[in-house]
Predict the structure.
Amino acid sequence: MALAPARVEERLRERFTGTSIERQTGEAVRDHTLVVPADRLVEMAAFLRDEPELRFAMLSWVGGVDLLPREPRFEVIYHLLSLEHTCRITLKVRVHEAEPHVPTVIGVWPTANWHERETYDFYGIVFDGHPDLTRILLPDDWVGWPLRKDSPLGYQEVAFTHNTPGRMLPKPDLTVLKPKKVRYRAH
Amino acid sequence: MTLNMGPQHPSTHGVLRVVLELDGETVVKAKPIIGYLHTGMEKQAEYKTYTQSIPQTDRMDYLAPMSNNLALCLAAEKLLGIAAPARAQAIRVLLTELTRISAHCVWLGTHALDIGAMTVFFYCFREREKVLSIYEHVCGARMTASYFRVGGLSADIPAGFLDRCQTFVDEMPAHADEYERLLSKNPIWLARTRGVAPLSAADAVALGATGPILRGSGVRWDLRKNEPYCDYDQYDFEVPTGEHGDAYDRYRVRVQEIRQATRIADQAIQKLRAMGERGDYRLRDFKYVVPPKEEVKTSMEALIHHFKIVAHGFFPPVGEAYQAIEAPKGELGFYFVSDGTPRPWRMKVRSPSFVNLQTLPTMIQGRLVADVITAIGSLDIVLGEIDR
């Protein structure tokens, strides 16, 4: 029988009494999501993996979200999967911009290695204790964190004979590339 | 000695670079380096509506465009809290299973080619060509399908389409026999794959491997069975698994999957015949789905809905959703964060190849350098999906 995510939350609260575990609620939060503090994350991860009733042996993915202008600005998301009991649960850690640090979970799930590198690459969130925290998808000499909301969607103008060299910009002109403010009206 | 393999190496299936530290012919350490094909799809998606991101997904795993479309549409549907009609789901199942056959055919052909068996390549591409023609028949494109939409499909299936699929499905098992006749007992194939690039079940789970890699290591996990989507619980099929987790087991699993996919596709065709050659192909909820063209031409209401959705897209509720499907390569999932506007605040792609490639160093550590080719081949990676 499949394990209910509510039961996972119950077990977690039982084991970590006194720690703030917040169930994320909202109009359309479709997955069972728990917001947990960064300093207890690794302990919780190990508990979720090893507890016979839970057995979240697989970390499906890790990702970041930039919530600018909200504070804390970043969220790191851990999507866990229990193969034994067919259950998914999402853990979230909130991260402040001033101190974007989260402990690594490689010790619990080795697969976190590349996912954490990707999150670092896109958002500049530092995973403390990661053995090889370098850029993974972008070039090593890239400046900035492309998936942050204040990083514009840049482009380089295509080179044609009539627009080189005068109109060719070596770097995107950031002033004109700010995302357009569009106001939507609901139906 | 440090040896640089790739990024322009024919057997790395794209632009994968592996830095190998060798001791004689033995691999001491391997480090895959990726990112040569990075196009920032997740960033671009934040500037597009959900529907506009569908063509992007064709270019991720370009050997399985329909599976990618399906994953995005299902994630968006989960966010919206809607579901496509049963007939549309059956068409989706039919097409994604044909996609699985075609993706596995390309894998088998190129993998065999890497190891030195030329013939299989031509046989496999013959069948893949037939699937591409089926794509062309249904949506006009051979590789960049973009056929699925949030809430259903972009158009109904054309006349004669089911007969064409039926012909293909009927002849496919014989072709799978052909592949197996060429390889399964071939002494060279056995010597190159059996016991090569092994991955234990514990390692596979710890490293997050999914799809045929995980099943090849003996873990019976298939999202179509374990977390059914698109009414997969109504289809009768088996989940093949391996025992030793070596390259040969992965080969066995994938060939069996071709057979199982054929079975599922056949059942989907029968289901569609029972439902009618023409019928519901998308939801009639015009806040999220474009009305049929005939109605747009005749009804003012439909025209307004069409205009609203085309001009700025649908408005999902504020929230987030993750939905995964069993793509040919493993768990392919999309995660959307919505702020209530027609563009996703964040789109995250959990691509199977990206995670599966992480198992490469474990597979080849302490093995011969010639086996690196077999290991990369047996992983079935597509760099478009890894780098996104």
Remarks:
- The beta strands of chain B are 2-5, 17-23, 26-33, 148-149, 152-153, 319-327, 330-338, 346-350.
- Chain B has a mean pLDDT of 90.
